[in-house]
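To whoever picks this up:

The parser on our side crashed when reading a file containing two proteins. I've narrowed it down to the boundary between the first structure block and the second sequence. Both blocks are reproduced below exactly, byte for byte. First block:
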Amino acid sequence: MTAAPYIWYELMTTDVAAAKEFYGNVAGWSFADNGQSALPYTHISAGDDQVGGLMALTGEAAANGARPAWFGYIKVDDVDATVAAIVADGGTVHMPPTDVPVAGRIAMVTDPQSVPFYVIAPDGEGESKAFLSVPTLGHFAWNELYAGDLTTVLPFYQKHFGWEMLDAMDMGPMGQYQIYGLDDGTGLGGMMTKPAEMPRPMWLYYIGVEDCDAALQRATDAGANIIHGPSEVPGGLFIFQGIDPQGAMFACVGPKV
C-alpha cells in the first residue's frame, strides 16, 4: 500500500471575512471566493499555489456542537472503500462519500477515538503543493495527532493510509512522540497521546512561516490567543500554537531569522 499524502486543508469558521483578514496577516495568504451564493467557498493560495479552503460553519452544524476548526484532506484511491473500511474498524461517518465538482469525491470520517478528518479521491492529475515538508510561507508543513491513546489508534492509521513509522522520541512523562511519513521517508507529521489538560483528541496542522517570531507577533497583533511557544523543535525550527479569534486552533512552524 502506497502511503497516503495530505493534499488539502480546510477551515470551518463562524466569520469568513475575519478569518481571511487574520490568516492573510499571519500566513501571507490570498483568497478567491467561488462566487456561488448557494454554496459559498473561499480558496486559499500561498503565492501561485492553492493550499486549502475556507467556509462558514452552518447554523445547523453549530447547533449540533460543531466549532471552528481546521481539517486535513488525505488522498486515497477509493473513497467509498476507504470509508467502509474505516467504519468497520470503529470509525464513524460525518459526511458520506460525496462528489464535489472540480474537487473530486470526498467524505468526512473520524478515527475510533472520534477525531475527524477528510478523505478525498481528487479529480485531475495535478500535484498538490498544499503540504511541503520544508516549512515554506503559507504552505502546511506538519500534521500532528493528539490521540486519546496513541498505542491503540496508531495501527488504525497505518492500516488505512499506509504511513511509515519513522523516528520516535521519548517525551518523558508525556510519552512517545511518533513521527510518520511517506514511503520515501518524507515526514508528514507526528503523533502522541494527548496531554491530560487537552479536552479532547484532535488533529493540529502547522502552517509554514518565514520567521517564527515575526509570525507570532503578527498573530498576537491580529487577536490570536497564543497557548504554546515559541519553542524549538528538531531541525533548528521553532513552533507556536494558538487559538484564532473565531476559536479555531492553529499552529505555525519555521526558523528564527
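<<boundary where parser fails>>
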Amino acid sequence: MRVGTWNLEGRWSPAHRALLEGGRCDAWLLTEVPAGLDLGRGRLVASAGMGALGGRTWAAVWSAGEAVPVASPHPAAALAVFGDLLLCSCVLPWRGAGRHWPGDGDTAARTCAAIDAITPVLAAHDGPLVWGGDWNHALAGPETAGSLAGRAAIDAAAVRLGLRVATAGLPHRLGGRQRAIDHVAVPVAARVRLARRIPAARLSDHDAYVVDVGSSRPAHRSIER
C-alpha cells in the first residue's frame, strides 16, 4: 500500500491534481486542503475549516476506495476507516500559529494538547493504523518549526501506538541539515519498501512525501494491501 502526505497550502490547480495523481497513492493524508479539491474518484473525508484562513480545511483523508468517516476528536484532524485500516491526517501546532490555532498555550502545550485529544481514538481502533500529516516538527536534526517538547510528545505517542515515522529521516524542502516536518507513521511491524520526498516547488510551501508499506510478519497493527 502507498500512502502520501502533502500540505496543499489551500491551493488547487491542474498541476496540483497531476502531482497527487502521479503519486499513485492508495491514500493521501492531506493538510490545508482547498475547498475545490477534486480527484474525480475515491472518497474525501475532511476536518473542520481553518477559520480566519478561510476557504480551506485543516486536514483531509483521501482514499482510492470507499472510506467510512470517523468522528474527529480535534478540529485539525480528519479520520476515516478504509477497509480495516484507520487513516488519520492532522496538523499539529507551529511556532507563530497564534490566533489561527484552535487552542491556547505555547507551541509545546498546544502540541501536547492536540496529541492528547487525537491519540486515544487512534489507540482504540482494533486494526491497523496509519497517522500522518503536517506535524510542523522535524523528528531529527534541528527543530525550527515546532518545539523540542512537542517532538518528544510526538515520539512518545508513536511508541504508545506501536508506530514508527517512516519520513523522519527525509529532507525538508529547504535541504541542508533540516528534516521533513510532514510525516507518515506506520506500524512498527510494517516493512517500508519506499519513503521519498516529491518536490512541489511553486505549488506549495511544502513538498509531498510518499511511503510504500507492507507487512513483514503477523502483528496486531500491520498493513498489507
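After patching the parser it read the second block fine. The two ends are 5 Å apart (CA to CA). Residues 216-225 have pLDDT under 50 and may be disordered.
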